[in-house]
Amino acid sequence: MLKRVKRRYLALQVDSDGVPSQKEFMDAVWSAVAKLYGEYGASQTSLALIDYDIEKKTVVIRTSLATLDLVRASLASITSVAGREAAVHVLAVSGTIKTLRKKVRRWFLYA
Amino acid sequence: MRKAFADLHLRLNVEDHATTLQVITEAAKLGYRLIAVPFSSETHGDEVAKLKVVCSEPKIDFASRIDLRPRTQNELVHQLRRLRRKFEVICVNCENKQVARQAAKDRRVDLLNFPLLDFRRRFFDRAEAELASNSLAALEIDVKPLLVLEGAVRIRFLSTLRREVAIAKEFHVPIVVSSGVAEAKLLRKPQEMAALTFLFGLDAASALKAVGQNPMAIVKRNREKLGSKFVAPGIRVIKEGKDC
Predict the structure, then answer these.
(1) What is the set of domains in chain B, with CATH numbers?
(2) How far apart are CA B58 and CA B31, in angstroms?
């Protein structure tokens, strides 16, 4: 029987001068993963964009648990999005979107 | 209790007050409890005091640091004798093998740093690690090149770091991961710095130690030594006067 794929959801904060579009942001993420781990490594991450809040500049992405460290390292290595200087900070990591939202709410409360 | 994290290598131009304040505020926001800024050997005490005042605003602890670049062993020993009691953290940039060996065995040295991109002059081999493991020196790794470099140079840099980290682990030499940046945009959260170390083979626990416990321990140890009540490791004056 096929093993169930475990996933992790990451809430991210984009720190940049402008507001990048969804596509520009995901391009930057894919490019960072591909630069560090190549196309083969990137293909194993099962990266997907779940939510993008332009106002708060927060993003939720999904990845497989097995490649979580790889994705975190790649996100930390992002220095520009759409040609503008940027940094991507991880706010919270969770196994379900529901818990992730709780954690993010708590983070904004205490930040 | 929350873990405390430190960045011992912020390259700030103290003259540029606005940028300095911006970077320090960002560091505090990202979760660092302590930062260190390298000064030159001609630095006056008032410059250090001024930066301490700047750090008090965003409520972040500040440690003074000096980066030594001696050309010979004797020069290193001379500089250490002159500056050890003036700064809380002493880092030696090892430009040649003799200096690297002397720095590794000298108990007054806190951090060993090697030229970032001159891979032939990164002298952190097994002999260096063995000397460092018997003294108090830690291997410092700046993550800035990982952020700004691309392609073949970054590949070579990562492979060199992977080798050095493996040697450091084998000889139980503490590793300190610092940012080495001068801009706020290049600063990363401590957990993100730890995530970056995954690229050169540090496990999660050691990575968090390299950003938190190890640098904090260096500063704590040196502050204790620089204090007026310090006599020797484990011995300090607790009371003075005729009634003792």
Answers:
(1) 6-225 (3.20.20.140)
(2) 11
